Amino acid sequence: MKKLELNVQDESLDFIAAEKLADSKAEDELGDCIRLGWYNDELKLVAPADLLGSKESPEQGIVTFAESRGAEMEIDVLGGRYRFYYKKFDD
In the beta sheet, which residues pair with residue 45? Predict the structure, then answer.
């Protein structure tokens, strides 16, 4: 899975703004794509909601889920605060 890090100057960037940035970057990189899930490190939240990993590695559930669904890209916003997983639509 290709991993991209979006370095953003605004440390107060909220989830909605991070999501829009990541979606735009994924579309630039992959074309027509779908977001398979996300992880919010600050709040320890994931989507799909039942995929939170262990206390030591809370993001592992969504990473495993995304990889098993063919994720091609992880986009990391603000040094891991927000992570989004994408797959290109099949033609």
Answer: 40
